[in-house]
Amino acid sequence: MRGKENREKLIQLFLLTIALSAISILALISIFIFTEGLPIMFRHGFKKFLFSLDWYPSEGYFGLLPMIIGSLLVTAGAMVIGVPLGLAGAIYLTQFSSKKVRNLVKPMIELLAGIPSVVYGFIGVVILVPFVRENFGGPGFSVFTASIILGIMILPTILSISIDSLMALPPSYREGSIALGATQWQTVRMVLLPAARSGIIASLILGLGRAVGETMAVIMIAGNATALPRSILDPVRTLTSNIALEMGYVSGEHRQALFATGVILFIIIMILNTMANLTSKRMAS
Amino acid sequence: MISIEVKNLSVFYGSFQALKNINIKIERQKISALIGPSGCGKTTFLRCLNRMNDLIDEARVVGEVFIDGLNIYEEKVDLLELRRRVGMVFQRPNPFPLSIEDNILYGLKVHRINDPKIMEERLIKSLEAVQLWPQLKNQLRKNALTLSLEQQQRLCLARALAVEPEILLMDEPCSALDPIATARIEELMFELKKKYTIVIVTHNMQQAARVSDFTGYFLLGELIEFGETHQIFTAPADKRTEDYITGRYG
User: Fold this and answer.
1) What is the pLDDT at residue A261?
2) What CATH number is given to the structural domain containing B18?
3) B69 neighbors B114 (Cβ within 8 angstroms)
């Protein structure tokens, strides 16, 4: 009897350790980034990091505003492209297409998620960058190009989670609506989308997270200039690119400045996540 | 007066024939009950009357269904208008996850009835018709899914009534309810038949005997017998009907 109880406790302890280790890794990463990044921000002032335009880290200028703007622009652009396509695709595949088409197309779209981001970047450089340069002007490496590639990259996330949440709705909603004389589209717009709202918003948050955090593809196609873009055809550098591009050779204050970049990225992601969560809660009540 | 006349109706799901050559005349402002063992085709039949079988990919319907003299399986039929005129209540209450008010007004919005005066009037009228108005009039913004099952089913009925149908199809409307709620819904049906033609599918023979004026017995996709309820239950013409209602089958 006693042995059994002890074993039970041991197993509980074991599972607790595993559960806590996931959280503790998150905690460790946060602590590490903040201890490395915050001191330099205090030393030079937060204002300089957040609102100054000049990034000459070897000379002590640590203005991250162009990168903050760059990250936000590229993410917003990716959402503008990815969200309508993802939602429209999810609606079509769950409500209008035949089962056969859905079973064929959905796995193919999910396959998109498995393509390494460097491949997206490569396709961007080889095909999209020259295309944008020739047809729209500018260097081709731009907010616009990066937005398109990122929009495609977040598509599978948005699409497949939205499909899952639309499919999880009881078929009786659709039947009830059709039986009242509603069209398919009215049913989707007025019943199914509101009913699947929380899942759809979750898909948007995940897509957003992927767009903010993506590094490799963005480095290859966004141009990486540390200046404020004047149009969507100008090159930009994102916060993630800033870290990845310079981490290889830095030391001293410059290295700390990259951790400060990480702190700001961290905070931006927290803000975006909280905002998305709040909207979903407000819409639910 | 005949409201629905069905001629030589057959339904196929792929190669399986679910209904075999059904002929039936359903009286206006009466309750007609369809009984029979599970899988006998009674629900399939019901769903032919508002063409809900169109939603099933592999279903094929052959034959004619006349509602007020118009064959609803003709090509030019306005399906949306048909489904407005022929309302349906399902086996499990299926209110939308919206407020009580939005549930009732849904049908109106769908049919582009936007006049606030009419909307208000229909909202009150249909909730009154299902006797929910006194309980719910102060909580119309509440989510419909928080109501009890009986209230949800009444709400679904009210939602169908709000678009002013002529015919109500009920697919085992009480199967998710307790006996007391069932009795109250049955009372409500007596009220409703003054205005509406009601066709109800039920697996509960006592319910058919209690509420209906006419009863039809389905078996393996065939309509064995259709006639006045007291006659079906006291002196069925067909041996198979007798076996079923006396409990020797099923």
Assistant:
1) 94
2) 3.40.50.300
3) no
A284: contact with B, CB 8 A cutoff: no
Answer yes or no: are the C-beta atoms of B88 and B169 closer than 8 Å: yes
The answer to whether A172 contacts B81, with C-beta atoms less than 8 Å apart, is: no
> Quick one: average pLDDT of B4-13?
94
pLDDT at A77: 97
Chain B residues whose CB is inside 8 A of the A186 CB are 110
Nearest residue of A to residue B97, measured between CA atoms: A195
Given CA atoms B245, B247, B249, B250 in this order, what sign does their dihedral have? positive
A174 Cα to chain B: minimum distance (Å): 9
Q: DSSP E strands: which ranges in chain A? A: 55-56, 61-62
CA of A190 vs chain B CAs: smallest distance (Å): 8
Q: How many domains does chain B have?
A: 1
Q: Would residue B250 count as lying in a domain? A: no
Expressed as residue numbers, the domain containing B94 is 2-245
**Which of A 170-209 lie inside 8 A of B, CB atoms?**
170, 172-183, 186, 190-191, 194-195
The answer to ipTM > 0.85 is yes
Q: What is the pLDDT of residues B143-185, one digit of tens each?
A: 999 999 999 999 999 999 999 999 999 999 998 888 998 998 9
CA dist A62 and A111 (Å) reads 40
Identify whether B114 is part of a domain: yes
Under an 8 A CB cutoff, do A195 and B52 touch? no
Minimum Cα–Cα distance from B50: chain A residue: A179
Write out pLDDT tens, residues A50-81: 898 999 988 888 999 999 999 999 999 999 99
Residue type (1 letter), B1: M
Distances (CA, A) of B155 to A47, A182, A217, B208: 58, 18, 53, 22
A181 and B80: CB-CB below 8 Å? Answer: yes
Indicate the residue of B88, B92, B109 with minimum beta-carbon distance to A179. Answer: B88
In a domain, B83, yes or no: yes
Mutate to test the interface with A, among B106, B111, B143, B153 (most CBs of A within 10 A): B106
Judged against a pLDDT cut of 60, whether residue A285 lies above it is answered with: no
Among A102, A180, A193, which would you mutate to test the B interface (most chain B Cβ atoms within 10 Å of its Cβ)? A180
Q: A1-5, A177-181, B5-9, B186-190 — which is least confidently predicted?
A: A1-5
For residues B48 and B64, give the distance between their C-alpha atoms in angstroms, rounded to a whole number: 10
CA-based nearest residue in chain B for residue A181: B80
Neighbours of B143 (CB within 10 A): 17
Mean pLDDT computed over B37-51: 92
All structural domains of chain A: 69-231 (1.10.3720.10)
Task: Express each pLDDT in B74-112 by its tens digit.
Answer: 989 999 999 999 999 999 999 999 999 999 999 999 999
Within-domain flag for B122: yes
Express each pLDDT in A134-165 by its tens digit: 999 889 999 999 999 999 999 999 999 999 99
Name the burial class of residue A195, with classes exposed (0-12), middle (13-18) and buried (19+) by CB atoms within 10 angstroms of its CB: buried
